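Practice problem: predict the structure.
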Amino acid sequence: MAGVHIKYINDADFHWLQAKRAITQVVASVSGGLKPAPVAALEQQFLQQLIMGTPTNTPVWDDPEPELEAVAFKLEVEREAALLRIAKKQQNKQLAQQINSQLHMSLKTELANQLASAAVIQRQSPVSDKHLLLLELLNSPKLDLGSLRLAVASQTWLVQDLTNMVNSPVFGARRPQNSDLQVTDLKLVLGYIGLDNLRLLIPFYICRHWLPLGHASLLWINRKLWRYAQIQGVAARALAVLHEQDGALLYSLALMRQMGTSVILGIGATIFEQLRGNWLREASKARDKELYDAVAVSDFPAAEICQLVSEHCMQLNWQLPQWLGFADSELVSQLQVLQDRDGFAQMPLTAQLAAKASCYAQSLLLEEANQLSFRDKQLLYSYYAMSEQELIRLQGLNYRKLTLF
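Answer:
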């Protein structure tokens, strides 16, 4: 027929168009509103990758505990040796499996009991009211170096971190020319850094201090968790600039979202090491080599701890500061909103931007692990209403360092 042009498409193009149409329909159905099951499932998948994923040499700047890698390697060598001894006898394999299962069940029960007690959590947590007071001061419109110096001085570890920063080669350009002297006076340290940079550096050091350090079983998890926090922080600052919001406030909020996870992981690792240590001593006392080896090869109960992190971390993010007397804090209020009970669309802008930063960080890390399809990424971006402008801004950032000065 004249004037009619028919375009034929091959099977591959037809299936691609069908898939694209299906993705568009699903994405449109999850925008805004209450969090749909597919999005919740993807976020649970990310948490499992974070805690249960295979240990890898996660690229992380400012490694919080570089000296622990040798200890973790030594423990793994000892565990491998015990596994070789056990492999020689089927009976020993069964014993190892039973001990491992019992240890995991005992830990899960004890950890659940401890997480049910506010007093126990506060006693075991590295988070203190002094840390939260510092974060509050940093976001006060009346912030001045005098009041900040008094608060910083009470935290010896923080004074050391800031002093090391000022005396580092990275900071050299900010120091007076030809000055080889080490700066030790806290007033000078804070003055060199400046208020704007302190609003970023102090939350950085405080949230790093909250990581459950010193546990060989958490070495790789800590590195992944810290990198996740860093990416969120950088993304949050960029989104704040784009939307003309307070970048330092959003940076603090992004890092503080790891508080609950850090606390639960730390308590869980402590229980695991105590249980395992007690059982090893009992086996040694009884001179039971087979039982000793069975306990020695017990693995870290990542799956059980991951489940409890999933159940409690978001609520603990704001509950713990409330227990410490910061119920009226703007940061704590935003953390409570970020528990996402009413849906992303109902959040205030500050919380939305923090949630977007987390969404982008999760998608980036899942892609690195080859665990995120194009369709799933679009689902995440749609629920969190990621605009094209926001994605362009975020894709061009350096997530390997905190840009200061």
